[in-house]
């Protein structure tokens, strides 16, 4: 089908103009700009084009420009993130240690990369066009704000939505367990209690790995910390709100009722913040904005069979096992 024929599924096209590689269609929506059918048509076009809908002289215009991936951006961001995580990791145990920083950087990029590549390969399996990961360097406690991938086009079904949403956390948690095991098994660390700058809460899954290797240190090596970070990020990603992985899974499980869940959960997080610290209050406010946006509808919105629902439940259980209500505690002597 031509671009005009696809557009005419949701728009009346009364004029079109082409300038170099930019195609401009003057349209009248048949169902309204925010209708599900309109979104479906625009999503279909976004598989190949950068799509922009705007007002031009009081008329609605849909602009299509061929999408071109720039992999240099992915590579540059990966290098910058490697540098930032290496720098931050080099100071974790006090004095600057470059080898320690490199080990942490490799571990955390392996964890974050596994998560995103889980999404990537599953998206490709279901025919959903997606980008390679964009890592985000930032001088935080772990040297990065994580990584993202961009999906292009509509999600074909609830099965695809569930699988894509679950694949990232499941791949990431496997990588986190491996990294935590290596860090705890081969790098036992102990420091004087008075030198502890921050305490971390231990989620059930991390505690299980500690028990498996009989870890007896009172601190953890940066490699093991990378595994802890992976578990913490998994628990955050599986909060069932909006465009988070948990939001995708919940939408696949219960359909449009997930929009109500997206509005209630942020309030629960804000309440949690009054008991367990400001981090949950912050996430409550942040996810409150996530929950305001209606989740896009899959092309095939048929309910899932029982075995697929089980996958969603298992993934949420992984999130619970990775959760700790008090991820960070500052010793009283440092307050």
Average pLDDT rating: 89
Number of strand segments: 12
Structurally, how many domains make up the residues? 2
Fraction of residues in β-strands: 15-25%
Secondary structure: helix percent? 40-55%
Largest sheet: 4 strands, antiparallel
Q: Which structural class fits the helix and strand makeup?
A: alpha+beta
The Cα radius of gyration reads 23 Å
Low-confidence stretches: none
- Count of separate DSSP helical elements: 11
Order of helices and strands: HEEHEEHHEEEEHEEHEHHHHHE
Basic shape:
elongated
Ends: how far apart? Answer: 65 Å
Spatial strand sequence of the major β-sheet = 1-2-4-3
What do you see in this structure?
With 335 residues, the protein is of the alpha+beta class. It folds into 2 domains: 3-66, Gyrase A, domain 2, CATH 3.30.1360; 71-334, no CATH class. Helix content is 52%, strand content 16%. It is built from 11 helices and 12 strands. The protein has helices spanning 3-7, 36-45, 71-89, 98-125, 158-186, 204-212, 222-237, 245-254, 258-276, 278-290, 306-321, and strands at residues 11-19, 22-29, 49-56, 59-66, 129-130, 134-137, 144-148, 151-152, 188-189, 199-200, 219-220, 328-329. The strands form 5 sheets. Strands 1-2-4-3 form a 4-stranded antiparallel β-sheet, with helices on one face. A hairpin with a 2-residue loop joins strand 1 and strand 2 (22-29). Helix 3 packs antiparallel against helix 4 (98-125), helix 5 packs across helix 6 and helix 5 (158-186) crosses helix 8 (245-254). The longest helix is centred in the middle third of the chain and has 29 residues, at 158-186. The radius of gyration is 23 Å and the shape is elongated. The N and C termini lie far apart (65 Å). The mean pLDDT is 89.
């Amino acid at each position: 089908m031509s671009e005009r024929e696809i557009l005419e599924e949701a728009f009346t096209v009364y004029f079109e103009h082409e300038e170099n590689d930019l195609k401009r269609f003057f349209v009248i929506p048949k169902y309204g700009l925010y209708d599900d059918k309109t979104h479906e048509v625009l999503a279909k076009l976004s598989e190949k084009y950068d799509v922009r809908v705007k007002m031009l002289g009081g008329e609605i215009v849909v602009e299509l420009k061929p999408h071109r991936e720039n992999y240099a951006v992915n590579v540059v961001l990966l290098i910058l993130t490697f540098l930032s995580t290496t720098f931050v990791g080099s100071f974790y145990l006090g004095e600057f240690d470059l080898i320690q920083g490199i080990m942490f950087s490799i571990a955390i990029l392996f964890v974050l990369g596994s998560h995103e590549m889980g999404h990537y390969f599953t998206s490709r399996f279901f025919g959903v066009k997606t980008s390679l990961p964009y890592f985000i360097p930032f001088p935080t406690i772990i040297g990065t704000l994580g990584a993202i991938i961009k999906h292009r086009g509509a999600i074909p079904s609830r099965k695809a939505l569930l699988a894509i949403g679950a694949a990232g956390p499941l791949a990431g948690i496997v990588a986190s367990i491996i990294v935590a095991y290596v860090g705890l098994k081969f790098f036992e660390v102990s420091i004087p209690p008075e030198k502890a700058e921050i305490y971390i809460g231990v989620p059930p899954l991390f505690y299980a790995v500690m028990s498996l290797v009989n870890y007896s240190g009172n601190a953890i090596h940066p490699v093991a910390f990378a595994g802890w970070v992976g578990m913490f990020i998994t628990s955050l990603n599986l909060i069932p709100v909006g465009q988070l992985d948990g939001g995708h899974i919940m939408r696949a499980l219960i359909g449009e009722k997930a929009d109500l869940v997206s509005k209630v959960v942020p309030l629960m997080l804000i309440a949690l913040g009054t008991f367990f610290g400001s981090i949950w209050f912050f996430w409550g406010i942040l996810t409150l904005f996530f929950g305001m946006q209606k989740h896009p509808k899959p092309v095939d919105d048929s309910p899932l069979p029982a075995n697929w629902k089980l996958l969603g439940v298992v993934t949420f259980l992984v999130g619970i096992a990775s959760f700790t209500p008090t991820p960070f505690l500052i010793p009283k002597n440092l307050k």
